[in-house]
Amino acid sequence: MPATIHPETSAGAVTLTASNLDQAVEFYTRKLGFQILFQDESSARLGTTGRKLLTLIGNPAARRALHSTGLFHFAILLPSRVELAKMLRHYIQAGGRLQGAADHLVSEAVYLADPEGTGIELYRDRPRQEWIRDVSGIRMSTDRLDVESLIAEADGQTQSWSGLPEGARMGHVHLRVADIPAAERFYHDVLGFDITARYGDSASFFSAGGYHHHFAANTWGSAGAPPPPANAVGLQEFVVALPDEAERKRVAGRIQAAGIPMEETADGVLVRDPSGNLLRLSFSKKDS
């Protein structure tokens, strides 16, 4: 019987290395409205009240890696189209630039990058009953998004923008990997995520509980690439947020049975996917 991960599993907090910590914190707080939950001279935890979304670890010696695996983007899910519109309007008014925008059928999304080049998606989901499902999975596309129409949703709102809304959370994490079949064996066969969509042989999408995707993997520029060096800017780790300790033990048991090295820590199980991306299996509410 195929492994199946608990349907309440989701994407959790992401940890990044930043070469300029102050610049990164200023970007995420001023342009995107993250709250500072904790900060010292070497790190910062950002998110909303009661929910950590991002940890930044400062390393002035860090440099961007070329042609490596790692993070394609992390995606912040906004609770409504109006909230996405308000956030987008603020970002543009604060001098931010978009890298792209798309209607994915299941969602509407805009794309940008932080000062270190880390990809970020801001999106809102359409209601699940509007998603199109067929024998191949959940239908997604990359259609043109009318950005002007989206921003117009924020017009006439009586409340001014006051930062990242309470309902914002980590919607999904999209990875650069070296090999798609190896990624599918790990995320689907071992961890137990459903494969909800494929873009040819260059990208696969994984989810729990019928979501369009909590994690994705692509080889768009990273086919056969090695992991980044230890001092690279970008992804340190990301959290797979599990509902409870029992599920953590079940998933850890499958990893162990597959002969994949892992490390038990007080904050969860650390394991690397076949492309060297580090993930943490955690059931801590602060990370989900």
What's the helix-strand series?
Answer: EHEEEEHEEEEEHEHEEEEHEEE
Number of helices: 5
Largest sheet geometry:
8 strands, mixed
Which blocks of ≥5 consecutive residues have pLDDT under 50? none
How large is the share of residues in beta strands? 35-45%
Number of structural units classed as domains: 1
CATH hierarchy: architecture: Roll
Shape: globular
CATH homologous superfamily caption? 2,3-Dihydroxybiphenyl 1,2-Dioxygenase, domain 1
At the first level of CATH, the class is Alpha Beta
Give average pLDDT, whole number.
Answer: 95
Helix content: 10-25%
Radius of gyration: 18 Å
Number of strands: 18
Query: Class by helix and strand content?
Result: alpha+beta
Across the major sheet, the strand order is 2-3-4-1-15-18-17-16
